[in-house]
Design goal:
Shape of chain B: elongated
CATH architecture of the largest domain in chain B: 3-Layer(aba) Sandwich
Order of helices and strands of chain A: HHHHHHHHHHHH
CATH architecture of chain A: Orthogonal Bundle
CATH topology of chain A: MetI-like fold
Number of domains of chain B: 2
Oligomer: heterodimer
Strand content of chain A: under 5%
Order of helices and strands of chain B: HEEEHEEEHHHEHEHEEHHEEEEEEEEEH
Helix content of chain A: over 70%
CATH superfamily of the largest domain in chain B: P-loop containing nucleotide triphosphate hydrolases
Radius of gyration of chain B: 25 Å
Structural class of chain B: alpha+beta
Number of helices of chain B: 10
CATH class of chain A: Mainly Alpha
């Protein structure tokens, strides 16, 4: 062992971490669930089966599904482009993909507001075509896609990069077209990283608040997603309602966390299985 | 025989020569940014020949292979395979078998699926695929390993799978990029002769890239020597070894040492001052001063400054004037130790200028026997 095992150091580090996580994570989560059920199950049920609550849940699911589908395609294409081709501006493209991670979501929202809003030169065209983006569902989807697009490509890029181009070239030389190459050679490689990216993307899409808040217009029952709805309830002093909705988001997050761990575990086992035989 | 038939026969000769050429590159150029990877590359490869592209790393040999395969596009020049210009034909359609340096086996597919890959693309009948794969795995000595994954195989076995996979759909041209580089020395030796034999049995025109001259000399029918993106010399291994034509060739092949002031050495007095020359150990014989030595009259006296025991031979470093010569002495000829005085006789050197190399035979040999050829 490189670091000599000192029991005091070891246990004090473990307890510091545990206390920190308890205060920062576990306690708040317990509190959320506790507050949600404080006034009994019927109140909780009433809070989440309310017309606007249901609309918010449904909208969140809808936006998340669209976002994940869009980003799946974009993520694969971007990762493929960056790792398999060399071209001018490749570094720039690679840096741009990371932009949503470094930019504040609220600024992302404002960018879209300026691009598609009334001040924009695009507005008359969109208006004539009867396309509503700002303060409508397309705007919410756009904002969510923007904020979450690095997640899938960032998971795939390292795996693709470490693999190199040899196997694809070998397949091409044997006459395979790109789709077959992707299906039989590339995809098996990136499968686990890809599913992992989808999980992260889903988690982020469910909870997105900042960018969506700017673009949605907060129309109850129409453009309010779950996080927005929670804020609305909270601002209206409806704590039970806010926490009931939060509890649902928390449960979703936990399910995703479990999925994530299963995927990670399976990914690792698949690799070691093939190595061990 | 009149003039007309003579010309006709000549034309036939030319035609015959051309129809026998399977691969030809004409003035191929390729740049990567400022780097000239291929500089006016031209060569011909005969059908059924096994050709070694030899050169130091970075000399552009792999680029040539990749241009031939269609994995890179040449900036200019023509590439002919079987008489057809293939510049515009994609890698998918060139019908070339390719063995990658680290084999590029499909990690997530079994040995069987790897070998069957091209057959599935060509939509062979399932039963025929199975027959063909079994035939190939038998050929490369891997029968029974169909269900293994690549990382369950040894380096040598992987190479054999890569080879079987490249041959599966009966390509007419096989390209191999450093086929032995990733294999340990002992297995490499065995695989070299195996590959040579197999390629000749299959009768497929093959080009392999290597930086290892022993490998090229042992395996190839023809060697194409590359340096800085240019072809330095092309010819039979014997020809390349014994008749280096360029400065690079004479300094790259074998284990040459540079000679200063050549005309101070006996037997080379007629050469001009300050000419650059190289000599290889196999052209130097050595004897102790008390031994009987055939060419003692035209030998130079020197002192052994280093001696390395190599088993079958002893490598001696002999200092003569300003020069230190490397000489191999057979173990059976008796030991010579550091510090001993010896005679060395140099039978041939290569005179080198910026462009060309020229063979120069020791004057003593020329006088004794004019037609003496080593």
């Amino acid at each position: 062992m490189i670091i000599e095992e000192n029991k005091i150091v070891k246990w004090s580090l473990i307890s510091v971490s545990m206390v920190f996580l308890s205060v920062m994570l576990v306690l708040p989560l317990v509190f959320v669930v506790k507050t949600a059920f404080e006034k009994g199950l019927p109140t909780f049920w009433a809070a989440i089966s309310d017309k606007y609550a249901r609309a918010a849940i449904w909208l969140t699911v809808e936006v998340t599904v669209i976002t994940v589908i869009v980003n799946t395609f974009f993520g694969i294409f971007a990762a493929w482009t960056i790792t398999k081709y060399s071209f001018r501006g490749k570094k720039l493209l690679s840096a741009l993909i990371d932009l949503p991670l470094t930019i504040s979501p609220i600024i992302a929202g404002l960018i879209f507001l300026l691009t598609f809003g009334r001040q924009s030169f695009l507005y008359p065209i969109l208006h004539d075509l009867n396309i509503k983006i700002i303060f409508a569902v397309p705007g919410i989807v756009l904002a969510t896609v923007f904020v979450t697009f690095p997640f899938i490509s960032r998971e795939i890029i390292p795996v693709l990069a470490s693999q190199g181009k040899d196997e694809e070239e070998a397949a091409a030389l044997m006459g395979a077209k790109w789709f077959r190459i992707f299906r039989t050679v590339t995809f098996p490689h990136i499968k686990w990283a890809f599913l992992y990216g989808i999980v992260l993307c889903t988690a982020r899409a469910l909870g997105e608040f900042g960018a969506v808040s700017v673009l949605s217009g907060h129309l109850r029952g129409k453009t309010n997603t779950m996080p927005l709805h929670i804020e609305l309830l909270y601002q209206g002093y409806d704590f039970t309602g806010a926490f009931a909705m939060s509890a649902i988001l928390v449960v979703m997050a936990i399910i995703i966390l479990i999925l994530r761990n299963i995927l990670e575990y399976r990914g690792k086992r698949k690799l070691s299985e093939k190595g061990a035989k | 025989m009149n003039a007309a038939t003579l010309i006709k026969e000549n034309i036939n000769d030319v035609k015959d020569e051309d129809s026998n050429i399977y691969v030809e590159l004409k003035n191929v150029n390729k740049n990567f940014g400022d780097f000239k990877a291929s500089d006016n590359v031209s060569f011909k490869v005969k059908k059924g020949h096994l050709v070694g592209l030899l050169g130091p790393s970075g000399s552009g040999k792999t680029t040539i292979l990749r241009i031939l395969a269609g994995l890179e596009t040449a900036d200019s020049g023509d590439i002919f395979i079987n008489g057809k210009r293939v510049n515009k034909i994609s890698a998918q359609k060139r019908g070339i078998g390719f063995v990658f340096q680290n084999y590029a086996l499909f990690r997530y597919q079994t040995v069987f699926d790897n070998v069957a890959f091209s057959l599935k693309i060509e939509k062979w009948d399932k039963k025929k695929i199975r027959e063909r794969v079994h035939y190939l795995l038998n050929l490369v000595g891997l029968a029974g390993l169909e269900d293994r994954y690549p990382n369950q195989l040894s380096g040598g076995q992987r190479q054999r799978v890569a080879f079987a996979r490249a041959l599966a759909n009966e390509p007419q041209l096989l390209l191999l990029d450093e086929p032995f580089a990733a294999i340990d020395a002992k297995v490499r030796q065995e695989l070299r002769s195996w590959l040579r034999e197999l390629i000749h049995n299959v009768g497929i025109t093959s080009i392999f890239v290597t930086h290892d001259q022993d490998e090229a000399f042992e395996v190839a029918d023809q060697i194409i020597l590359t340096n800085h993106g240019k072809i330095e010399q092309s010819g039979s291994p014997y020809d390349i070894y014994i008749n280096p034509q360029t400065a690079f060739t004479s300094k790259f092949i074998g284990h040459p040492t540079l000679i200063k002031n050549l005309n101070t050495l006996r037997g080379f007095g007629k050469t001009p001052d300050n000419i650059e020359a190289v000599v290889r150990p196999e052209f130097i014989s050595v004897a102790r001063t008390d031994e009987k030595f055939q060419y003692s009259a035209s030998s130079d006296k020197g002192v052994v400054v280093d001696a390395y025991f190599r088993g079958a031979v002893i490598e001696l470093h002999v200092k003569v004037g300003d020069n230190i010569f490397v000489v191999n002495r057979q173990l059976a000829e008796g030991r010579i130790d550091v510090g001993e005085s010896v005679y060395i006789f140099i039978s041939r050197v290569y005179l080198v200028n910026a462009l060309k190399a020229q063979t120069y035979i020791n004057e003593a040999l020329k006088q004794k026997n004019e037609v003496y050829i080593i």
